[in-house]
Amino acid sequence: MTEFATNTYYAGVNDRQKALFENLWPLPDGVSYNSYLIADEETALIDTVDVCYSDIFFRKIERILNGRPLDYLIVNHMEPDHSGSIRLLRQQYPGVRIVGNRQTFGMLSGYHRITEGLHEVTEGDTLDVGKRRLTFFMAPMVHWPEVMMTWDATEKLLFSADAFGTYGALNGGPVDAMMNVDGFWEEMIRYYANIVGKYGGPVQKALHKLSALDIRMICSTHGPIWCEQKAKAIDIYDRLSRYEGEDGVTLVYASMYGNTEQMAETVAAGLSDNGVKNIAMHNVSKSHSSYILRDVFKYKGLLIGSPTYCGQLYPEIDALLKKIELREVKNRLYGYFGSFTWAGTAVKRLAAFGETMKWETVGEPVEQKQGMRTDSREKCLSLGKAMAARLQTK
């Protein structure tokens, strides 16, 4: 067991088995479910773990408690990967009082049929567990309506629910100072884009609320405890929630027989020839949407190409556009292109998508009939050049 602050222990687990987070998003390096136990004059557990790992979790708690009772369970977030073990925990420790807000308790009843032994808190309420006073801040829609955060002013610990979380199991100790965290930054962006992305406004409100706190460590429910790198973690969430992209372009395309792919390669050449170095290219038939969404959030520019397919957009492009629209991504520079054999509609639909998103359209869209010719090649190069020029003035 790891005591990472005074009488404060990491009780989380690693999941290296699950292939897809939320049954949607790839987990090549697994994921952690983080839980924390404060052992003051009274004991308080903050969040639980996925029920699949409850046996390992309970053994950790038993070792930390060493015969002491568990007095409180603080539920910052009711998503099942964090609340899945609550019913079994109540059976193991029937006297534990469950701390949460009104929204929490509605979900607690719905998921676990637990309606008794509850301690309701609202914005700014406190709970004394001995020398430690815990304060609760509501953070609705980051990224569920019941989310709250717990602040320990004595140790300067912020238990932040899913905020500042990331994919990736923890290889060794839970604190960033105990590991190489280089690989977590891209996974933090991907996690944000996949899970939190729609809720930039609520994230900004939460960041403003927390800005007055002198935070020493951020204890999220996924990924490392941020101590040495907490400023970088906060900065990433701040930029992403303001939809502030880095300089660069995400170039996404579909291609059945290579014609639209030739267009995409030519557009990319136009970008590169005019000084754009950060170009993330994705063939939707090979790149999982999880990684495409990461780069859509990461970069200011977005170029999308699609062939016409049965009078519509290519199906995987259409599905991706729905995912982007769902996340209400703002402030992107947008260009588009497409090809067809006998009846072109893809470019019209890509134009309508840009209008729906209220993005700035850059350059002239390119529509190619059948194979690439000199005129369409020049137009694709010009589209890349126009995007490069606009990026320099954004």
Q: Which geometry do the CA atoms define?
A: elongated
Mean pLDDT rating:
97
End-to-end separation: 49 Å
Gyration radius, rounded: 24 Å
Number of strands: 23
- Level of helix content? 25-40%
User: Which structural class should the secondary elements be placed in?
Assistant: alpha/beta
- Please state roughly what percent of the residues sit in beta strands, choosing from under 5%, 5-15%, 15-25%, 25-35%, 35-45% or over 45%: 15-25%
Which ranges are low-confidence, i.e. pLDDT below 50, for 5 or more consecutive residues?
A: none
Main sheet: strand order: 1-2-7-8-9-10-11
Largest sheet: 7 strands, mixed
Count of helix runs: 12
Characterize the structure shown.
- It is elongated and about 80 Å long.
- The protein has a 7-stranded mixed β-sheet.
- The mean pLDDT is 97.
- It is an alpha/beta fold and 394 residues long.
- A hairpin with a 4-residue loop joins β14 and β15.
- α5 (184-196) runs parallel beside α7 and α6 crosses α7 (230-241).
- It is built from 12 helices and 23 strands.
- The N and C termini lie far apart (49 Å).
